[in-house]
Amino acid sequence: MLKENKKKFIIAGLIILFVVTVFLAGFIGSLISATYPNWSAKLSFLPGFLKPKVAVSTNTETTIRTVEESAVISAVKKSSPAVVSIVAQGASLNPQTGSNQQGIGTGFIVRSNGVILTNSHVVSDGTINYKVVTKDEKTYDVKKIDQDPSIDFAILKIDASSLPTVDLGDSDSILVGQKVIAIGNALGMLQNTVTVGVVSGVGRGVTASDSLSVSQETLENVIQTDAALNPGNSGGPLLDLSAKVIGINFATTSGAENIGFVIPINRIKSVLEQYLSVGRIIRPYLGIRSQMINQAAAALYGVPQGAYIQDVISGSPADKAGLQDGDIITKFGGTSLKDNISLVGILGKFKVGQTVALEVWREGQTIKLKATLAEVPH
């Protein structure tokens, strides 16, 4: 008799626990549905059946979605009107026309008067007239292009007003495993394509390519994501679940799946502020053409790692500092040029007019020089 009562007591207790659990799940869902994702991280420990759901009602039925699904849908709805396609003059978004697709990419509007951010390799061909196509299929001529190739970044200006915009987030606060959203003109034909993934890694180094797959400079400290990025996605935004831009999509990896790279948005904020203040991007200029020597090449040729100078431009800061063809810059401003740290990447951290100390390898000797940086000639 005692055992039967104990068994009944246990069953009753389990029933009560189940009812309380269901009640708490519903209560938590209603509590955070309006404030996700701020609360979501605090509830990540909950098992699947306890994770809150959001009811979405229509005229005919009610759809149940997870908070994460609702957050993605909300972020896309909020941000996608500000995502644009960048098209070369004469190219078409219609895949049936077979017209020239060179230079097609993605951008996003950050000021309602027509200031658009994208990659420099998307608009690198100075012989092409570019146009911008908005989500509502309005077309604008690109009136002005400012570029900073050192971080594969460009600012476009179109004549417009009252355009939708996106908000810029904080890329320094992102975490590996964080859910992210990419929006872009996939394959140059599929406007505002949405893909979802996670932050796969931070602090990566990768070499970007332009629309013709010509290698550009290596970029350091970029974000890696498994959100699908395709040709045409370059220049589009990577968003967090609050619909804030945390990066600019710029590269994929051939021969691999779900490996894309993104420029952290914090790296371009100061450049954007400068542009908005003075009307152009001001970049420091050394005045050399160079090629980075990696560890393998250094061991093969018996030289140090660094930036091998192929050509010194006459009258440039490099020329005035005494740099010569064939020199290898091993240190720039106290930073060693090795292990994926390129000269272009370091140069972008200095200002016009600043004097920088250099260490140069020349015919087996280390020479110390100083160069005063000028503004990139226009």
Please give a structural write-up:
By secondary structure, the chain is an alpha+beta fold. The chain has 3 domains: 66 residues; 212 residues, Beta Barrel (Thrombin, subunit H), CATH 2.40.10.120; 92 residues, Roll (Pdz3 Domain). Helix content is 20%, strand content 38%. It is built from 6 helices and 23 strands. A 6-stranded antiparallel β-barrel has the order 3-4-5-8-7-6. Strands 10-11-12-15-14-13 form a 6-stranded antiparallel beta barrel. The longest helix is centred in the first third of the chain and has 31 residues. The protein is globular, with a radius of gyration of 26 Å. It starts with a helix and ends with a strand. InterPro entries: Chloro_Bact_Ser_Proteases, PDZ, PDZ_sf, Peptidase_S1_PA, Peptidase_S1_PA_chymotrypsin, Peptidase_S1C. Belongs to the peptidase S1C family. Keywords: Hydrolase, Membrane, Protease, Transmembrane, Transmembrane helix. This is PDZ domain-containing protein. GO terms for molecular function: serine-type endopeptidase activity.
Strand order of the largest sheet: 3-4-5-8-7-6
Q: How far is the first residue's CA from the last residue's CA?
A: 95 Å
Element-by-element helix/strand order: HEEHEEEEEEEEEEEEEHEEHEHEEHEEE
What fraction, in percent, of the residue positions are helical?
Answer: 10-25%
CATH architecture of the largest domain: Beta Barrel
User: CATH topology of the largest domain, which one?
Assistant: Thrombin, subunit H
Strand content is 35-45%
- Give the averaged pLDDT, no decimals: 79
CATH class of the largest domain: Mainly Beta
Q: How many domains would you count in the coordinates?
A: 3
The structure class reads: alpha+beta
Rounded to an integer in angstroms, the radius of gyration calculated over CA atoms is 26 Å
| Tally of individual helices | 6
- Gross morphology is globular
Number of strands: 23
Low-confidence stretches: 32-39, 95-99, 209-216
Q: Let me know the largest β-sheet.
A: 6 strands, antiparallel, barrel
